[in-house]
């Protein structure tokens, strides 16, 4: 059970840390606000969809066509991870956040909960209640 909880926390951090960094850097550098939504939409298509397709094709090439065996895609992934790490370490700067807003963890959680609860929710659209009736014709 503890593993499931920690796995959920790790997954949440994995999928939110980069987005948080991106939003902070975007605001820090003074880019146009609408560019952020464009960046996220391109990341969904290119980062998730297209890269997944190309990765699958490359894995197939390594295992079937080049005959490196079933472990080759994982070895290739480790190589790409090392290349990405080298690029990130050499080109990205650390984002420590806004030093003027140094608050303790409890205060940050209170602010976050307040922001989440203040979001207006759209009313659900009413869909017409259509029922399908099936009739069986007996012969």
TrEMBL record:
Function comment: Mediates high-affinity intracellular uptake of the rare oligo-element molybdenum.
Main location class: membrane
Biological process annotations from GO: monoatomic ion transport
PANTHER family: MOLYBDATE-ANION TRANSPORTER, SAM (S-ADENOSYL METHIONINE) TRANSPORTER
Stretches for region Disordered: 120-139
GO molecular function: molybdate ion transmembrane transporter activity
Location of this chain's protein in the cell: Cell membrane
GO cellular component terms, A-Z: plasma membrane
Keywords annotated in UniProt: Cell membrane, Ion transport, Membrane, Transmembrane, Transmembrane helix, Transport
Protein known as: Molybdate-anion transporter
Record's bilayer topology term: Multi-pass membrane protein
InterPro entries attached to this UniProt entry: MFS_trans_sf (IPR036259), MOT2/MFSD5 (IPR008509)
Biased composition (Polar residues): 128-139
Transmembrane segments: 40-62, 74-92
UniProt xrefs under Pfam families: MFS_5
